[in-house]
Amino acid sequence: MSTDASGGGELDTAVTVTPSAAEEAVSLMESEGMDVDVGGLRLFVQQGGCAGLSYGMRFDNEPEEDDRITEQHGLRVFVDPASMNYIGGSTLDYESGLQAAGFHVENPNVEAECGCGESFRT
């Protein structure tokens, strides 16, 4: 794998990003005045929810040194090594509809999810 020239982690495709997810995230980042060439969306896993683990997302101005970095459709996604153990191979999508809109992680590692889809177990 190649090292990202901007100084953070490795550049790879451990997480797939759909065009709609990238478009929405880049739009949100730009509306907050963030530099989309350096900053990105941090995708992580945290303890919580009725199934044990839940996804978290936030914008970061730059990656951490040991992050895995995925860059697709103009969006950089940062994932820390511990979270990568749970979400490697996942797809980040953005869905919009009449009842709800938001980012969704399609994770092939999930063995069980809670009824509301907010938490999971691997």
From TrEMBL:
One Pfam family hit: Fe-S_biosyn
Gene3D superfamilies attached to this UniProt entry: HesB-like domain
GO biological process: iron-sulfur cluster assembly
Core domain sequence ranges: 15-118
Top-level division of the source organism's lineage: Archaea
GO molecular function, one term: 4 iron, 4 sulfur cluster binding
InterPro entries, per the entry: ATAP (IPR016092), ATAP_core_dom (IPR000361), FeS_cluster_insertion_CS (IPR017870), HesB-like_dom_sf (IPR035903)
Family annotation (SUPFAM superfamilies): HesB-like domain
Name this polypeptide is given: Iron-sulfur cluster assembly accessory protein
